[in-house]
Design goal:
With 394 residues, the chain is an alpha/beta fold. Strand 8, helix 11 and strand 9 form a beta-alpha-beta unit. The chain has 17 helices and eleven strands. The strands form two sheets. It has a seven-stranded mixed sheet with strand order 1-10-9-8-11-3-2, with helices on both faces. A four-stranded parallel sheet has the order 6-5-4-7, sandwiched between helices. The chain folds into two domains: 255 residues, Rossmann fold; 123 residues, 3-Layer(aba) Sandwich (Rossmann fold). The chain binds pyridoxal-5'-phosphate.
């Protein structure tokens, strides 16, 4: 086995225990209707990179470009804004699907909600989305970030209106700090990961991500044979996998989850396959900051254990190469600005297709010149200094 790549695969039987109803196309349509009511809403592009696909030995590559999302350069705001909308609608005795942006920002609602404080922990993008959403609705927000977070990401969260700070803890301990602060002070925890006794808000967040999946589904020129999804806590990957499994049913593409080697909790959980979650603790050094999470979201694993086929942990250099290749793709393919986590799945596949030492993995994934592969560029250059350094190759 190559030291830079690890793979675990799951063989599924026909029997499914987990319902995908919460992520089906009707739910996704309603979630998108809610998001469409935001003035910042604009469908993000699906970039087709046929020349790059040919160069890598694939039939086609489709990249859903979340760099364009809400001016925030990442998909995460879809989750935070939908969860907060749910909380505010419920508080007003309504269903979120009966309300919209204009109603939520009305003077009456703002007056009712001005003392609410939402709190969260984040590697960057989720916190920015929560801060932005809370500000839109006239509420307060507190955001904690793990040790080592980029100064630019902190600044962006502060600029979105939050009281934000970098802690001395890793991501998972920062989540525990936010949870404790919420419990002690009556703040509302809007966390994008589920754990014992805390599943409802993470589910809303995951449903929020269905807008991205639905847009991609409608934009695809052809059915993909493969979908590669990067995982931190796995909420994004699970929501997207659930949506596509629910729309394609027996025709579901091969779904592969990718993570950094240093934060390979899904790989470990899939490899052990013993019904338990397997975590990583301590410092998780990786350039893929958005994926530096050591504890899987419990409800995400439930979905992925039944609807994902392969779990790969891989090295940072492949993500960096992915950023460079997306910035300068082959032929006249449209360049995409992709941050470390955004480019990760694409970079992982680009190396699998071109490194002969990974032939066994390529075969196991059934990747070849017939494959049409869907990726999600989940963030743009959210740490500009690092982006420029990596893309310029130093
Ligand atoms: C850019 C980016 N991509 C992917 C992810 C992974 O999402 P999740 O934590 O839901 O697995 C994150 C998480 O913060 C992220 O910021």
């Amino acid at each position: 086995m190559n030291k830079n790549f690890r793979i675990a695969s799951i063989t599924h039987n026909a029997e499914k225990k987990i319902s995908l109803q919460d992520y089906c196309i009707d739910v996704a349509n309603n979630v998108r209707k809610y998001h469409k009511s935001f003035p910042a809403y604009c469908e993000t592009s699906l970039v087709v990179m046929t020349n790059t696909a040919t160069a890598l030995g694939l039939a086609d590559i489709y990249i859903k470009n979340e760099d364009e999302r809400f001016g925030l350069h990442a998909f995460k705001v879809l989750g935070g804004s939908f969860a907060i909308g749910n909380i505010l609608a419920r508080k007003a005795g309504m269903n979120v699907f009966e309300t919209d942006y204009n109603q939520l920002i009305s003077a009456e609602m703002r007056a009712d909600n001005k003392n609410l404080t939402f709190i969260t922990a984040t590697d960057g993008n989720h916190g920015r989305g929560v801060a932005w959403s809370a500000t839109q609705f006239g509420c307060k927000s507190i955001v904690y970030m793990p040790k080592g977070s980029a100064a630019e990401r902190l600044e962006n969260i502060k600029n979105a209106g939050a009281d934000a700070s970098i802690t001395d803890y890793n991501y998972d301990d920062t989540v525990r700090l936010a949870t404790q602060q919420a419990n002690e002070n009556g703040y509302i925890l809007v966390q994008d990961t589920a754990f014992d006794g805390y599943t409802e808000i993470p589910k809303f967040i995951m449903q929020g991500y269905c807008t991205m999946a639905l847009e991609a589904y409608e934009q695809l020129p052809d059915n993909p044979t493969h979908i590669f999804l990067q995982a931190g806590v796995g909420s994004m990957a699970a929501a997207v996998a659930a949506f596509f499994a629910s729309v394609y049913k027996e025709e579901r593409p091969i779904i592969t989850i990718v993570e950094p080697l240093s934060a390979d909790c899904f790989y470990r959980t899939a490899a052990a396959c013993d019904g338990k979650l397997h975590c990583v603790d301590g410092e998780m050094n990786t350039i893929m900051a958005g994926l530096a999470c050591g504890e899987p979201c419990s409800i995400a694993w439930d979905i992925l254990s039944e609807n994902a086929d392969h779990f790969i942990a891989f090295h940072d250099e492949a993500a960096a190469n992915g950023m460079r290749l997306l910035a300068k793709p082959f032929g006249d393919d449209t360049p995409v600005v992709a941050g470390e986590s955004g480019a990760s799945a694409f970079g992982c596949v680009a190396e699998i297709m071109t490194n002969p030492q990974l032939a066994e993995i390529k075969g196991r994934l059934q990747l070849n010149n017939q494959s049409k592969v869907l990726f999600f560029n989940t963030e743009g250059a959210t740490d500009t200094e690092n982006y420029i350094r990596i893309v310029n190759g130093y």
